[in-house]
Here is the input.
Amino acid sequence: MQRHSARPLAALATIGTLVLTGCGTQSANPGERTATSADAGRTIRAQEFMRLTQVHDETGMTLLEGPTFGEDGGLFVVDVTAPEGEPKVMRVDVGKKTLRAVHTDGRGTYTSAQFSPYDGRLYLSDFSHGEIVSLAPGGGDKRTFFSGEVDGARMNPDDIAFDGAGNLYVSDSRGMSEGEAHGRVVRISRDGTEARVLAQDLAAPNGISFDQDYQGLWFSELTEDRISYLRLDGEGKAASRHTAIRVNGGIAQTDSIAVDADGNLYQGLHGRAAMAVYDRYGARLATIEVPSRAKGLESATNVAITPGGTKAYMTVSGPAGGYLYTFDALAEGIRQSNGG
Here is the structure.
């Protein structure tokens, strides 16, 4: 989840109770690669697809996140700052370019979305209340999947990722409002009964995604502009962790992450309507940007790549509203590039 304008710490405090929230096992390591201007790669210009939202009077902003394709081919998107009565979860028919509301309520602040491979339901992270909830595939039948403390502290769940068995992995941005490195990566069993911390003392962890082979997790830390790699063992426990990429974003910060079939990382940027694309060894392959004529767009939070295809849909937001932009991805879409 990205944060608008001159935050990241305070801006979303305008919506009710929302409070926004060392890293690798080494501060630097021989395998770490720092992205430089020489690694910028090529520029890919995304094209406007459609506007989904306008700035809400009640919250003073709109913020699209978590694009994910359902089995029916619909693209589901959340609006983090939508007030009660406005769609908090939407479904886009990308063929017809139509939009319909899927869910709204007076409580949740939903920052990500992804369909479970275990039960097929749509899972949402509620940043404000430390909960993970789920909906029926087409909306409705809201259920609480997980709520409560993990190791004595309530989460601020930001992004989510499923393994192949349906266990859930969460970037917990706990402590972000204090500007302290209290964030975590948390694993929740697929039945919601067991939660354990896989990594801690993180600086506002945000994006999270499995690599293409489900061997480990990529996760970004918003306030450190770095991407780390957390290797897992066969039981979903942390085997090792290291800082993998340092993103030279200037005033922009690292947001959500998606991974394509070739293992390339699509790193969303808060503070710039663009995404940085890296290969799994840290080489900067490309920058996805909106056309320079597009005004009032401040960030590109996330992307969904069509499963089995290369058409990508990027969520872009700012004072001009919330939009979908499209581009051709560098490789085909898989589960790891479809929500979170």
Q: What stands out?
A: Residues 2-39 have pLDDT under 50 and may be disordered.
